Amino acid sequence: MSVIYILLTISVIVGVVFFFIFIAAVKSGQYDDSYTPSVRMLFEDELVKSKTEKPINTKTD
After folding, report:
1. Using a CB cutoff of 8 Å and minimum separation of 24, what contacts does 19-23 make?
2. 20 is a domain residue
3. So what's the pLDDT on residue 32?
4. Residue 6: inside a domain, yes or no?
5. Whole-angstrom Cα distance, residue 34 to residue 36?
6. Does residue 18 fall inside a structural domain?
7. Residue 47 pLDDT greater than 60, yes or no
8. Which residues cross the membrane (predicted)?
């Protein structure tokens, strides 16, 4: 029964260590995406082309 307490304690410690490593990585900017914004401008035209626009009717006398 004491093995369960030891394994539970070790697993909680490992979980807390990984959580602090994750928080440190987020604060350092490791998960910031610097590639997508530079490429997004290349694909914006495709979104505009998919919209349908109504033709403008003008009356000329």
Report:
1. none
2. yes
3. 82
4. yes
5. 6
6. yes
7. no
8. 6-26
